């Protein structure tokens, strides 16, 4: 069973994003980033009311800021290879695990490659859900996005 309808170009796009955003975080880190992308495409709340597809989520901007720094990296535009395509398919086919089960946001507060991540208890007003290696994950409150807890 899949979590969301998708086409082959979505698999390739998601594979490139998870590689560029979280390759240093290992497979579980890349899968967690992919789960956040899928979560954003499935909900109609918060900053994600007007995005419905993987492509729209990945290329979403908030003012002049890209939602994902990866799209500004030259490595994002390199062809996706099979190991990353496999991870993208896992995300699309219902992979979710703590801390990304209900998360809509993540970030690396220390910068790339820095260990001993200190995650703030809230980020943009949303509560901390957990950490995986260098990425802090945040899920919305029920008041902000109750539907995330139903998907």
Automatic annotation (TrEMBL):
Give all residue intervals belonging to the Cell wall hydrolase SleB domain. Answer: 25-138
Keywords, comma-separated and alphabetical = Hydrolase
Highest taxon above the source species: Bacteria
List the Pfam families.
Hydrolase_2
The answer, when asked if Hydrolase is one of the entry's keywords, is yes
Q: Does the keyword Hydrolase apply?
A: yes
Molecular function via GO: hydrolase activity
Q: What is this protein called?
A: Cell wall hydrolase
Query: What species does this protein belong to?
Result: Gottfriedia solisilvae
- The primary gene name is cwlJ
């Amino acid at each position: 069973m899949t979590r969301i309808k998708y086409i082959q170009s979505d698999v390739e796009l998601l594979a490139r994003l998870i590689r560029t955003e979280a390759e240093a975080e290992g497979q579980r880190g890349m899968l967690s980033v992919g789960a956040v992308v899928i979560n954003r495409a499935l909900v109609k709340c918060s900053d994600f009311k007007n995005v419905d597809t993987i492509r729209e989520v990945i290329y979403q901007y908030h003012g002049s800021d890209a939602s994902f720094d990866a799209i500004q990296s030259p490595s994002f535009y390199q062809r996706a290879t099979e190991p990353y395509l496999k991870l993208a398919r896992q995300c699309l086919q219902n992979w979710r695990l703590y801390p990304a089960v209900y998360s809509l946001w993540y970030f690396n507060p220390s910068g790339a490659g820095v260990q001993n991540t200190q995650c703030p208890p809230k980020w943009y007003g949303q509560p901390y859900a957990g950490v995986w290696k260098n990425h802090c994950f945040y899920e919305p409150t029920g008041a902000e996005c109750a539907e995330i807890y139903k998907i």
